[in-house]
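Q&A log
Question type: sequence-to-structure
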Amino acid sequence: MTNTALITGASRGLGLALARSLAAAGWNLVITARGSADLERVAGELGATALAGDVADAAHVARLAQAVPELDLLVNNASGLGPTPLPALAAYPLDAFRALLETNVTAPLALVQATLPALRRSGGAVVNVSSDAATGAYEGWGGYGATKAALEQLSNVLAAEEPGVRVWWVDPGEMNTRMLADAVGAEEAAGAADPAKVAASLHDLVRSRPASGKVSLR
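Response status: OK
Response body:
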């Protein structure tokens, strides 16, 4: 029987790289991202089902859950960075912080809630993509890091409450992605890891199915 994965933020970066890795291994994929053109191109490449939309939109979350009545893997990869240049907390716009919480914390929880029945049936797994900014005191990263810290604690409690489902909160390390380039500049981002290499390690994690917990791919 073919395994099914739902991957958010799958049109670029780590989400795209993981989608390619899983597709090559024969997984059935449902992918989502906000940009429909890029997402449709990826879907055509991989033979995946594309549902474009914002994971912070409750109606979109419901559509995604309906598309995966059987599900083996949920990858909450979609994430917002927040305002750039990255502001200090003393000047962080609170409306922007609330929006970031919706995307980086509330949306992953909503998707978990919507897909848990299917994941329980399959004994499936949840991957919540975090960051070392969840624990490190990096200037300018306070807003983003706070959302990832919240996501890690949600993952920690979810793992305790759902022993039949694997839950991994994953720190992938710095990757050469558009998000990192937006934060630190394209030149510095170019020296970071290739998302494809990180995705290969993440695929190994999914394949080996260790106990629930925090995982560093750095």
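Response note: The chain has one domain: 4-208.
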